[in-house]
């Protein structure tokens, strides 16, 4: 028989199987019970002896009544999947490929898009402590580099001028000789000193430094109040213009120290459980001409999920002494999570059918049987197997869908025959060969 005829027979079998399954579903439309059976703990223990796994009642959306129902041997066989016998010629025509289930050291890669931002721990906001008019600006544009102590702007404040004059009057009064009786001298001296301290403290609260106050004592009233940079860094926000009037507490500048930056990465909700604080991450920055790949560690994980994107944001800190990392720059992030030495199934061997997952197990002699498995964490082309297979099992990695379809076709035919009464219910695997 030619290869073309083999393929035609396989396609016909799949079509017949789909029609048979639809017929069974329509024929049982009035039945209120489910076609699926979930065994109890004793049945699961028996299945474990054979290396096959049948879920308990908690693994499916079945009712309590369905969970306690005792299955027949035929129903249990249908749940596991009917074996399919293939000749060596047909195995070759279908292109069946197999792999051995074995233990591997897997590392799950969680990929995300990252964005660099300012380090919030190194931000400073410069505000005005007095009301007044901006006379001159020492920094006139956003992005300017400043050093700690640089003059950012100067303000003319009538209130500050009045406070300076009050301080000078109190200072002169404290130095003036006393002309009162000696019995009142001590009390008057205390009052003068209290007034001087109060006037000085008022100037300090408005931001004047001890050096500025000393200059006032020698030179007299200062017309303008200079405001200095509290730290070295880059001006990332400028909210004032020369000649503008500002009030007390008005934000004037925002300064950021860019020697370190934060990287935010959005991790999907389904992967958050695999991410822990302290985990290493690889960051690829396409905008860098040199040292495109950086390494860091997760420093913080947000305790909430973004309701719009369904992601959780994680944060890492990176040194930026050369200022090559700029806030707003994008990067590709890869968080590596070691899974340990686990039982690994090739990705192509797993068939996802909605509620359950299957692999097709080969005995090496031409017999293939679908088997339900529980897997998690795709890593490096392999799934970590939790239940359903054992080390050394041989699973089909190519043409497994065709074999599983053949098994489902036989299940549907046996169900049809059982309901019509013209075919006994299957009690074991059929001994048939594909020709």
Detailed description of the structure:
The protein is α+β, with helices and mostly antiparallel strands and 435 residues long. The protein has three domains: 3-106 and 340-434, conserved putative lor/sdh protein from methanococcus maripaludis s2 fold (Beta Barrel); 109-119 and 260-338, Beta Barrel (Elongation Factor Tu (Ef-tu), domain 3); 120-256, Beta Barrel (OB fold (Dihydrolipoamide Acetyltransferase, E2P)), CATH 2.40.50. It has helices at 3-27, 41-48, 64-68, 73-80, 88-94, 158-175, 182-205, 210-219, 400-420, and strands at 84-86, 97-100, 102-118, 123-127, 132-137, 145-146, 151-156, 224-228, 233-238, 245-246, 251-256, 260-268, 280-284, 293-301, 311-319, 330-346, 351-352, 357-362, 367-379, 382-387, 394-398, 433-434. Helix 1 (3-27) crosses helix 9 and helix 6 (158-175) runs antiparallel to helix 7 (182-205). Mean pLDDT is 76; it is low at 14-79 and 422-435.
Outline of the structure:
This protein is an alpha+beta fold. 29% of the residues lie in helices and 33% in strands. The strands form three sheets. The chain has a six-stranded antiparallel β-barrel.
């Amino acid at each position: 028989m030619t290869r073309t005829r083999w393929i035609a027979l396989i396609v016909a079998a799949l079509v017949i199987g789909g029609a048979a399954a639809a017929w069974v579903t329509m024929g049982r439309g009035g039945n209120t019970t489910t076609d699926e059976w979930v065994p109890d703990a004793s049945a699961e223990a028996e299945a474990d002896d054979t290396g096959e796994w049948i879920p308990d009642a908690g693994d499916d959306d079945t009712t309590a009544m369905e969970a306690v129902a005792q299955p027949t041997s035929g129903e249990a066989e249908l749940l596991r999947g009917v074996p399919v016998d293939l000749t060596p010629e047909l195995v070759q025509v279908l292109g069946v490929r197999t792999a051995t289930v074995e233990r591997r050291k897997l590392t799950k890669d969680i990929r995300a898009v990252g964005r660099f931002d300012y380090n919030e721990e190194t931000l400073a906001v410069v505000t005005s402590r007095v009301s007044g008019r901006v006379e001159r600006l020492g920094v006139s544009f956003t992005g300017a580099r400043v050093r700690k102590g640089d003059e950012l702007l100067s303000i003319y404040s009538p209130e500050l001028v009045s406070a300076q004059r009050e301080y000078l009057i109190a200072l002169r009064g404290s130095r003036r000789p006393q002309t009162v009786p000696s019995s009142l001298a001590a009390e008057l001296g205390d009052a003068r000193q209290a007034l001087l301290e109060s006037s000085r403290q008022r100037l300090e609260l408005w931001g004047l430094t001890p050096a500025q106050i000393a200059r006032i004592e020698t030179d007299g009233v200062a017309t303008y109040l200079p405001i200095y940079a509290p730290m070295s860094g880059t001006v990332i926000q400028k909210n004032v213009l020369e000649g503008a009037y500002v009030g007390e507490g008005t934000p004037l500048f925002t300064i950021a120290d860019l020697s370190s930056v934060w990287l935010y990465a959005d991790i999907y909700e389904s992967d958050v459980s695999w991410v822990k604080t302290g985990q290493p991450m690889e960051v690829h920055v396409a905008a860098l001409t040199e040292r495109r790949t950086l390494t860091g560690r997760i420093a913080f994980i947000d305790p909430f999920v973004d309701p719009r994107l369904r992601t959780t944001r994680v944060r890492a800190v990176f040194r930026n002494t050369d200022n090559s990392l700029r806030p707003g720059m994008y990067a590709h992030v890869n968080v590596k999570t070691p899974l340990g030495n686990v039982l690994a199934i090739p990705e192509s061997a797993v068939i996802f059918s909605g509620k359950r997952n299957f692999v097709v197990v080969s005995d090496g002699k031409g017999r293939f049987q679908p088997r339900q498995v529980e897997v998690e964490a795709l890593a490096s082309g392999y799934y970590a197997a939790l239940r359903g297979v054992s080390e050394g099992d041989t699973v089909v990695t190519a043409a497994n869908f065709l074999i599983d379809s053949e098994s489902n076709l036989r299940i549907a035919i046996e169900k049809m025959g059982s309901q019509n009464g013209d075919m006994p219910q299957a009690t074991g695997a059929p001994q048939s060969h594909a020709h």
